[in-house]
From TrEMBL:
Keywords carried by this UniProt record: NADP, Oxidoreductase
Family assignment from sequence similarity: Belongs to the short-chain dehydrogenases/reductases (SDR) family.
InterPro entries listed in its UniProt record: NAD(P)-bd_dom_sf, SDR_fam, Sec_Metab_Biosynth_SDR
One Gene Ontology MF term: oxidoreductase activity
Xref: SUPFAM superfamilies: NAD(P)-binding Rossmann-fold domains
CDD domains: SDR_c (cd05233)
Keyword Oxidoreductase: yes
Transferase keyword on record: no
Top-rank taxon: Eukaryota
Protein's recorded name: Uncharacterized protein
Species of the source: Lasiosphaeria miniovina
Amino acid sequence: MAQNVDTQLLKAERIFSVEGWVCLVTGGGTGIGLMCAQALAANGARVYIAGRRKHVLDSAAVAHSPHDGPGQIIPIGPCDVTSKADLEKLCKELESREDHLNVLVCNAGISGPKAVPDLSDATQLRARLWEKEEPSEWDGVFRTNVTSVYFTTVAFLPLLQAASTRPAQQQQHATASGSPRHLWMGANVIVISSMSGLMRGSQGHFSYNAAKGATVHLTKLMATEFDKTGIRVNSIAPGYFPSEMTMSDSDARGKSYLSDDIVQGKGHPIPAARAGSDEEMAQACLFLAKNRYVNGEILVVDGGVLTQVPGR
Ligand code: NDP
């Protein structure tokens, strides 16, 4: 039965604390993955960041590990999430350091080929789409954005379940009652999908939007099918955020900058008229990480885009 708690127990610093938690973020050295890693570390977690470029992970960890408080950002890997062998190696490396994993953020992703379908002549449309895209490019986009999310999650299920079943006294800020039922659904996976997977327009990249649609559905499938393990699976569907994907580059600290002008030139209405911020991604990440009553949810953080373009 739900119980009443004192008002002071509802302070943000308590209900969003991840102190002592162990987290892993794929693609955590730049962009949205780095924002999630910072959010979790700032609130007390030991956050491992993985990716293919070791130097990017190392410099992001040095630049962004919190100076005050117990949280840490720790490079691990390198790991290519499209390789089962690499995932197995990553899993073993993490198991050698930690006996459980509270949060897995499946964030690594790539964009795909671009071919804008804004032609009414079918012959011209065919020529453009046929010539500008290759099946191998579609395979690559699906392999990183969908297939790897599945295999990364599967690889870490035992370590995640080990967090869910840890005794209450070992779980920081578990619940007021600490009953086994309340501890259930503690460990969780956050999949970074996209608003692109929910809208009906292709934005000139069919393969990416189709892949992200699959990422959204995969999240729902895993939430339902893995329910018995006590591991929640949710997704954040971001709109425009600064990253290497959106700006093709990042600085020495793994950060990118996305101006209002660029966002407003995307060809569809963006009510917020700007990119999303580190804080806004952090709020979404902490909400899904901590709220045990949310499972199988797709949390859209898009500055209102999907209120304006055909989508959900
Ligand atoms: P970035 O390119 O900055 O981040 C992607 C990260 O994933 C990189 O750090 C990259 O590191 C890593 N990565 C890519 N491929 C692999 C791989 N095969 N194995 C391991 N790591 C990999 O872009 P974003 O921050 O934008 O992208 C993060 C996620 O957010 C993606 O899933 C993207 O689709 C999604 N997204 C982004 C939006 C945005 O506006 N930024 C909007 C909606 C969704 P490395 O190259 O070193 O491996």
